Batch of 4 targets.
Target 1
Amino acid sequence: MPVPAPETSSDTTSEPDSDPQAPPAGQVPRELVGAWDGDGEGSARATKIEFFAEGFVAVYYNNGQVLRGPAVVQGSAMTLHIPGGPLYVRNWSITPFDAGYGYAFENLSLDGVSYVRQTSGG
């Protein structure tokens, strides 16, 4: 007795399903690109945050851990898709300040937590 052929369905697709767990493509505005130093107090606070033009972020902690992933910035909010995250920032801003003697800095505030980078001087 012949073995019956398996049934096929016409509603199956040949396209693979997209991964619903995959993080979105990152997007970072130019003014955020670069490394920002934090105070690093406590094991949960970042000692440095680095944004990349390609849409990624690296978050450095004082215990040596570095978490990387896409950063999605939309207006004054951002979502950092890092392991253990995502990390949501409701409000970010950059404020320049002059320290005198030719030294200038920018302060990055992420929901009130400050990071700084030097923009000119020695």
Target 2
Amino acid sequence: MPDVMYTTIEAIPRVLLLVVGILGLIFSIRGRAKGVSGLMVGAFVVMLVATAASIVWQFVALNLPSWVASERLTADEIRLIFLGVGVPLDAAALLSWLLVAIAVLKSGRQPRQPGVAPYPGPVNYPMAAQPGFPNPQPGNTQPGHPPSN
């Protein structure tokens, strides 16, 4: 099997991750209208960029035998190139998952509503009735039972 075929097969999980990232980006953009954190959108953008770059790098690395055959690069220089590309790709992937985790943690909190918080008042303070319902009587009564006088 040619090297391109092996590399294509090796790239399948990354392509699937790319599809998941695109779906996640679509759903997170839709969720922005419902109050989802912008961190989630950012996380999926970073994930897509890192995944696409890693797929491209995988095919660029196919030329490794020609790099070695040209004898212009030493083994240490090739190692340095792979390190220089691999570390930022891994850091971007880590950053995307970190942003997802922060966005998930933030989504568990109740969103802050603008305006003044309601005053709780005393515990047994009767509140005004909604339209169509009788006003509550002072004291502790159970629903459906008239207060005992």
Target 3
Amino acid sequence: MTLSVSAWLQQKIDEYTFSVRDITVDFYLSQAKLDRADCSIQQLRQFNDTCVDMAEICQLNGDDHSYLHAMGKLHHRLVQEMGNSDRDRLFRIQAYQLARLSLTRLCHQLAMVGEWNKATALQSDFVRHAGWIF
């Protein structure tokens, strides 16, 4: 039996909703690990991977707003970790490297929707926070 277009579309929307709900749980679990003082570089990478996975699910389903939101949360947290003096230098440098990648993805998406001022502001903010690396 074939599905009507309406039923097929509702099924795809439900699948997307469930996927986002599942990855949101993963996001909060990985964020909780990142909130601990003894967080490892591996947990930082896991947080990054979870956020990127969430953003990609959103992007594949045409949800540009949620894509920008997920990448924005990731980038903001990575920039925060770059400046966290309670973390060791290697952890902070890893956060810097991951933040460069998230900045690239964010600016690309912002450029695609014509938000040049936001992309420029993000770049300026990143350079300001990453000054200690140079």
Target 4
Amino acid sequence: MDVKNLPTDNLYKFITLFCIALMLSSAYAVVSVYDSHRAQYNKVKEKEFLLLDTKKGTDKFNAQSEYISQEFLRIKSDRSFFIWFPMTAFTLSIFGGIYGFNLWRKNLQKYLDEQVKLETIILRRKAE
């Protein structure tokens, strides 16, 4: 197969469509992770409200208070860690989609438009 005859239009379409699919799936992942961590945060917040019924200064209160503060820290650190990857994928997919579309437009569509224009001129001349 000659290198000049490779079907690069399919490659450009694949890059663009893959990046669009990656963009949609990573956006869904960001929302899903955020909702999951929000639900965990609300559960811990409920435990904190239930803790207010316990007498302050007791061992049970101190242990539960420490546990709840550790849970808040864990949820905060987990959320930032687990949102980083989908957000990075989302950002890269935007740039990848733009890159694939520009390659297709610059390397292929420009010549197809020129070909259609010349064929239209030829057909008009034949019609006259």
